[in-house]
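Lecture notes, continued. The same structure-token format from the folding unit now serves as the input rather than the output. Read the line below as a description of shape only.
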């Protein structure tokens, strides 16, 4: 993950959502952008093989149970710099809609939420945010 600069949060979340069969066939749907990024690594297929072997060692564990369990500990949404920056910019114009949306979404970060999906909160960060720097004193 470090080599490909993969998004750790979304990589683990997408591992929570993808089926073992999709991984086994190295069929990574487009919606799993973080896993697709990871898939660019030359050792990805070897890693998938080891990961699937590890999953198979959990005797009596079904793929559905694994995915359900993993989605309860791997959030779909986290507050990211670009989201905060967007909310701040709108708030500076007296529009607090994104502040309120973030407040609602982050109360249930493990649950897929239509409003968060429409806002792009589980998508790849926008290109304008690539060089965004936020510090503790910002």
């Amino acid at each position: 993950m470090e080599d490909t600069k993969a998004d750790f949060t979304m990589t683990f979340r997408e591992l929570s959502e993808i089926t073992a069969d999709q991984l086994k066939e190295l069929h990574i749907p487009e919606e799993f952008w973080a896993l697709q990024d990871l898939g660019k690594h030359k050792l990805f297929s070897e890693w998938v093989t080891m990961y699937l072997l590890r999953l198979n060692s959990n005797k009596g564990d079904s793929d559905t149970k694994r995915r359900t369990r993993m989605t309860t500990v791997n959030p779909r949404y986290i507050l990211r710099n670009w989201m905060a920056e967007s909310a701040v910019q709108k708030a500076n114009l007296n529009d607090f809609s994104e502040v309120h949306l973030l407040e609602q979404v982050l109360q249930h970060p493990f649950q897929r939420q239509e409003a968060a999906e429409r806002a792009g909160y589980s998508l790849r960060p926008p290109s304008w945010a690539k060089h965004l720097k936020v510090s503790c004193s910002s």
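Point for the exam: The mean pLDDT is 93.
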